[in-house]
Amino acid sequence: MAFLSTGPIENNPVSGVRPTQQVTVKIDNRSVSSAFSVSIQGYYLNAGTRVLYVSEVVQLAANQVITKNYYADFNGFEFIFVTSDNVPELSNFVQISVWGKSSTGQLVTAHRLVSEELLGEHNGGGKGPTGMTGPTGPGGGATGPTGPGGGTTGPTGVTGPTGPGEGATGPTGVTGPTGPGEGATGPTGVTGPTGPGEGATGPTGVTGPTGPGEGATGPTGATGVTGVTGVTGVTGVTGVTGVTGVTGVTGVTGATGLTGVTGATGLTGVTGATGLTGVTGATGLTGVTGATGLTGVTGATGLTGTTGPNILATHGRFVPVNNTTVANNTTVNIPFNTVFAQGITLGGTGGNQSIVIPDTGIYFVAYNIRLFISDTSASADIITVIPTLNGAITPFPSYLYKAAGGTTGSGGLALAASGLINVTTANTELIFPVLAQGITGLTLQITGQNDTYSNVSIFKIS
User: Fold this and answer.
1) N or C: lower Cβ tally within 10 Å for the chain?
2) Strand pairing partners for 60?
3) Distance CA 433, CA 454 (A)
4) Tens-place pLDDT, residues 43-75
5) Are 394 and 425 in contact (CB under 8 A)?
6) Are 23 and 56 in contact (CB under 8 A)?
7) What is d(CA 275, CA 277) in angstroms, rounded to the nearest whole number?
C-alpha cells in the first residue's frame, strides 16, 4: 500500500484570477496481470482549515489508464492518493500525475506534479542490495570429555572465545513448501556461560545503486535577518558656478521692401439685350348659360326621434385633493373635492375617496389625473390608475411608463381615459386607485389646484 500526496498547493489570485481553475489527475496501471484500486481524497485549504471536498475510489484493470477532472478554484488545495496493494513493490505499478489547468484549459506549470514528485511512503529510489556478511570465525571452544557409560554427565566445557568473524553468507536458497504442521518444541537447554567478547564486525557492504527518483524537496529555510544599513557618506561640496558669458550684439534689422503696384481692374462686360415679349392670345367666347331646372318635390317629414337622456338629472364633476403624495409600491385611493354635482355625491365607505352613484343605469365616465414629478430625469417602472366599481375593475384603466433621462427638474405627467359603466345596484361606489412601482430618486404627487389640471366627470346617459 502506498500513500502519496501533492502536499498543500498555493493558488492565490493573480490580477483577480486564480492560476488553477481545474485539476486533472491521470492514473495508469503498468501491471499486465494485476488490478488495483486507488482512493482519491481532495481538500481545499480555507482560512487555516483543511476541508474534504473530493472522496472516491477508482478501480484500475491491468494496463488501464484513468483520467479524472476536479474543480480547484480555491486559494489552496491538496490531494492524497492511497493504493490498494499491501506489497510496496507491487504498488510501484500504479503511476499518478496531477496537472493544474487554467480556465481556458492551459497547463499551469507551477501546479504540475508527476509520479516521482508526489510525497509519500514507498515512493522514490529502490533499496540497494544487502552488503556481504563478514567471514565466519574458525570455530567454537573444545567440548569436554564424555564421562563413562551410565555415570553422571560431566560438567559442560567452557565455551571457547568467539572467532574474529564469520565467513561470507551463501545465496539464499529457494523457499520450500510449508509443511502441514510443526513438531513439539524440545526442552530448552542449559545456557552456557557467556563468552569473553564478540567477534569483529564484518566490512560494510557495497552501497546499492541510487533509485530512479528523488524525494520531495524539503521546505525552504527561513530568510536570514537583513543586515544593518551602512552609514550614508558625507555629501561632497558643490562646485563653484561658472561665470555667465557676455550676450552677443543684436544684428541690425533689414529695411522693408517696397509694396508692389496694384494691377488695373478689368472692364465690365456688356449686358445682353432683353428678348421680345410674345403676343397674348385672344380670349375665347363665353358659353351660353343653361336653363334652371325644375324644383324637386318636398320629401315626407321624418319620424320624431326618441327623446334624449336628461343629463341634468344625475351628473357630477370632481377634482382631486391637491398635493396628495404617492409612495413607491403603495396603492393610494384618490381623495376628491366636489366642483358641482346633481344626484352624485362623495361619501360611502371610502369617505371623500368614493364617488357614490345613487341610481342604476348606464353612465359615461371621463377622467384626467395630473401627477407632479420632482425630477423629470428619474425613472418609474409603471404608474397606473385602474378605477373600480364596487371593487370590480372598470374597462378604462390608464398606464404610464417613465424612462430615465432628459432634463433634470420638476414637471408633470397625466393619466387619462374614458368609458361607459353599467350601474346595476343603487348607491354604487366608484373609486380611483393610483399605484406607482419602481419610482427612484423622485417625489410623486397628485395635483388638483383646479379642475383644469385634474378632474373626474360623470353623467347618466340611460
Assistant:
1) C
2) 36
3) 15
4) 999 888 999 999 999 999 999 999 999 999 999
5) no
6) no
7) 7
